[in-house]
């Protein structure tokens, strides 16, 4: 029969721990409750002992807590709190049922923090790598207003929207990247394998070649001779770019450049503004102060350029300016959106109108993604046509010249 290690508190509040034999952890909890002990942590003894292989593997390769895990946690917390389950018992049940070791460890730390008398928002703030500042602020508002279960439901809906937007944007960018990479690979293969074969044939005729052919052969010879150096330079450029975008200025410049890309830029911009409008509406509807709501929204958008524009809005509101005036100065909103902000500010229904703004941007993103193929096709045709034209002029022109000389 398995042996479980447990930690709990007795009737006097003292911390106790020990081991029990039982078929399941639920039966261990029942035994502890029957003896007057409130269980805080129940783990399978030996499964995660300090020297075990499982413990070493868990420390070396901990499971990453992803967006789906936070969504599931929010939805389950809403259901449990709505049913009247205490927070500590709800966290214990979620810790036991989760399949993600990283999430289980996070919930265990949160439970221990709550057990020392901390509030839930403070306990979550200690795990700031898992829970975003926006998430923690929303939980804090739920604690103050007594509507914690409703806040968890809104957070689940917001995270679901976030996940949908990210997947749509990734899907919109994936197709152009595949096309560009395929064309680049084709050019490499042609320059390394195809053109050198033609160059040997042309060289055997000892005839003067056209300019385009000489350029193609020269570029091909350069690639064949220096391909290790080119490979190293390409890898260095990729690694250098990754390091650059991790810096503050690099991420800001890259986020700004992404919004100016020919086709994907407008999709990224609309998806980012939809994320901002949704998060701001959620915070405003939940009772978050306006300045704090803008600060949280600036952190949620995941774009430093847009985030700084939203922080400019926050600074303007702190100086006493209206939201409409600060939104106009940013220059990132369309006139229709500015008009809706103005109406919402006048009528006091800013949260509802910002939700409509998010819906509008979401519909536009969906339309842009559906028409993405039609927008990319002309660019693809021009690129492929140009590549074929260069190859035709460089490869077939000398063959035609040689054929004409042979006929004469």
How do the helices and strands line up, and which of them pair or pack?
Layout: E1 3-9, E2 15-21, H1 25-34, E3 38-44, H2 53-60, H3 67-82, H4 87-97, H5 101-115, H6 120-125, H7 133-145, H8 148-205, H9 211-246, H10 248-258, H11 264-285, H12 290-300, H13 304-318, H14 323-330, H15 335-347, H16 350-370, H17 372-407
Helix pairs in contact: 3-4, 3-8, 4-5, 7-8, 8-9, 8-11, 8-16, 8-17, 9-10, 9-17, 11-12, 11-16, 12-13, 13-14, 14-15, 15-16
| Cα gyration radius (Å) | 30 Å
Name the poorly predicted regions.
Answer: 47-55
Percent of residues in helical segments? over 70%
Beta strands, count: 3
Reading side by side through the largest sheet, how are the strands ordered?
A: 2-1-3
Shape: flat
Oligomeric form of this entry?
single chain
Number of helices: 17
Beta fraction: 5-15%
Give the termini distance in whole angstroms: 97 Å
What structural class do you assign from the helix and strand content? mainly alpha
- What series of H and E elements makes up the topology? EEHEHHHHHHHHHHHHHHHH
Overall mean pLDDT score?
A: 80
Question: Main sheet, how many strands, which sense, barrel?
Answer: 3 strands, antiparallel
């Amino acid at each position: 029969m398995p042996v479980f290690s447990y930690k709990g508190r007795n009737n006097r509040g003292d911390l106790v721990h020990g081991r029990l034999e039982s078929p399941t952890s639920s039966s261990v909890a029942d035994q502890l409750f029957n003896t007057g002990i409130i269980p805080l942590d129940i783990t399978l003894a030996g499964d995660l002992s300090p020297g075990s292989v499982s413990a070493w593997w868990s420390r070396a390769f901990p499971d990453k807590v992803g967006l789906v895990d936070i969504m599931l946690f929010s939805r389950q917390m809403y259901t449990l709190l709505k049913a009247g389950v205490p927070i500590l018992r709800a966290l214990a049940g979620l810790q036991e049922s989760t399949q993600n070791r990283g999430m289980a460890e996070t919930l265990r730390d949160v439970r221990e923090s709550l057990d020392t008398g901390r509030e839930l928002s403070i306990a979550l703030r200690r795990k700031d790598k898992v829970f975003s500042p926006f998430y923690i602020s929303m939980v804090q508002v739920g604690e103050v207003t007594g509507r914690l279960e409703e806040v968890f439901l809104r957070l689940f809906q917001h995270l679901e929207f976030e996940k949908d937007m990210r997947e749509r944007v990734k899907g919109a960018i994936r197709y152009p990247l595949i096309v560009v990479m395929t064309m680049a690979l084709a050019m490499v293969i042609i320059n390394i394998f195809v053109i050198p074969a033609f160059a040997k044939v042309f060289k055997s005729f000892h005839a003067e070649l056209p300019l385009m052919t000489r350029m193609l052969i020269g570029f091909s010879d350069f690639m064949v001779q220096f391909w290790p150096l080119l490979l190293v330079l390409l890898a260095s450029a990729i690694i250098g770019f990754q390091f650059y975008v991790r810096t503050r200025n690099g991420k800001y410049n890259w986020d700004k450049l992404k919004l100016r890309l020919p086709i994907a830029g407008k999709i990224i911009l609309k998806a980012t503004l939809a994320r901002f409008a949704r998060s701001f509406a959620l915070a405003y509807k939940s009772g978050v102060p306006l300045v704090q709501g803008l600060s949280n929204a600036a952190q949620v958008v995941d774009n430093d350029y847009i985030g700084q524009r939203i922080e400019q809005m926050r600074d303007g509101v702190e100086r006493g300016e209206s939201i409409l005036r600060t939104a106009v100065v940013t220059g990132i909103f369309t006139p229709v959106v500015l008009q809706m902000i103005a109406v919402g500010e006048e009528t006091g229904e800013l949260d509802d109108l910002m939700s409509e703004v998010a819906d509008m941007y979401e519909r536009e993103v969906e339309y842009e993604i559906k028409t993405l193929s039609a927008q990319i096709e002309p660019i693809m045709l021009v690129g492929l046509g140009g590549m074929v034209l260069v190859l035709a002029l460089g490869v077939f022109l000398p063959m035609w010249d040689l054929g004409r000389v042979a006929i004469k």
